């Protein structure tokens, strides 16, 4: 966790250096554009930081740092926006961490081109659903194979679905 804070502090200071450099070179438009980009990135994480499960928030923030270092574009969405996380038991949090890290590792080793993952967490009164979408060149079968190799619970109780389209591939996990 200390490493995460060090990396975020480092990134934060780097952003200031970039903005200062643009301003010193009289590139006001670039500075403004850069600030808008950083703001958009931070807004994208706001749904993560509002989650009601601190362990899950830390896992997601560490995944963001890991994906940046591996040049994988990682995005999150929650539905509803104020996800309560009541169904997210501790074993599910651990399993989610395994699924997310396995996904990042697999796509970082995949073919060249655009590498992205979009994680959508959906919650209803009776169900928790994870939709993990990948760039088109990512075969989700590799991720499922890696997860099966470990045979960690609750994977043995879950049958993830794969949906393919021209836009990419999606792994869907549902828990009641």
TrEMBL record:
SUPFAM superfamilies (UniProt xref): Sporulation response regulatory protein Spo0B
Pfam families found in the cross-reference section: SPOB_a (PF14689)
Domain of life the protein comes from: Bacteria
Domain SpoOB alpha-helical residue range list: 4-50
Keywords tagged on the record: Kinase, Phosphoprotein, Transferase
Entry-linked InterPro entries: Sig_transdc_His_kin_SpoOB, SPOB_a
Gene Ontology molecular-function annotations: phosphorelay sensor kinase activity
Protein name: SpoOB alpha-helical domain-containing protein
């Amino acid at each position: 966790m200390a490493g995460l804070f060090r990396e975020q502090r480092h990134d934060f200071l780097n952003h200031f250096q970039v903005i200062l450099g643009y301003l010193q070179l009289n590139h006001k438009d670039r500075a403004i554009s850069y600030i808008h980009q950083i703001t958009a990135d931070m807004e994208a994480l706001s749904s993560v930081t509002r989650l009601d499960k601190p362990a899950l928030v830390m896992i997601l923030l560490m995944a963001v740092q890991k994906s940046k270092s591996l040049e994988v574009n990682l995005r999150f969405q929650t539905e509803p926006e104020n996800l309560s996380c009541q169904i997210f038991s501790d074993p599910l949090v651990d399993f989610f961490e395994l699924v997310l890290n396995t996904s990042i590792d697999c796509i970082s080793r995949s073919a060249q081109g655009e590498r992205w993952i979009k994680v959508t967490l959906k919650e209803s009164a009776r169900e928790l659903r994870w939709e993990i979408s990948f760039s088109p060149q990512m075969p989700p079968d590799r991720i499922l194979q890696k997860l099966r190799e470990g045979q960690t619970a609750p994977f043995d109780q879950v049958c993830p679905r794969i949906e393919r389209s021209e836009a990419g591939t999606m792994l869907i996990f549902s828990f009641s």
